[in-house]
Amino acid sequence: MRISDRLHHDPDAAGQAGGLRGPRRPRARRLALTRAAFAVGAAALALLPAAGVAAHSLLLESSPAAGATLSEAPPRISLRFNNRIEKPLSTIRVLDERGTPRPVTMLVGEGAADRLTATVADLAPGAWRVEWQVLSTDGHIVSGRFSFRVAPQTAR
Fold first, then answer.
1. Domain that holds residue 7
2. Looking at the structure, do residues 82 and 144 belong to the same domain, yes or no?
3. Residue 91: partners with Cβ closer than 8 Å, 6 or more residues away
4. Which phi and psi angles does 26 have, rounded to 5°?
């Protein structure tokens, strides 16, 4: 038997050097296609937004700003987050220098879905701390705090 006859007709010949045909070629093609499909699927998953990570609420802006010194007391505290929050389950607290809370009124139905606002009346001159707690749309509770100062300017 010649080697070339054996390579074309023997089912086991594909595994030999120089083999041109055999049963392993479709298997190799399937394996290559499976690997390519897996690579495409993995790339697609990598490009999807990481919803679980992005869903945690982060405070982007506050009014008054953290560390601000105001010449008059603010009538309201406003917080803006990086995404929607569950307003009915979120709170703002305003505390004086001794840690005594000041009454606030939450404005749950007011503003955009990423904002939390509360009114507070008659803050005296001094340091004030704002403590907030929000429920992110992913179900995680996020909290934080910042301070500001009310210091009326004196006449010269």
1. 3-48
2. yes
3. 106, 132, 133
4. -60, -35
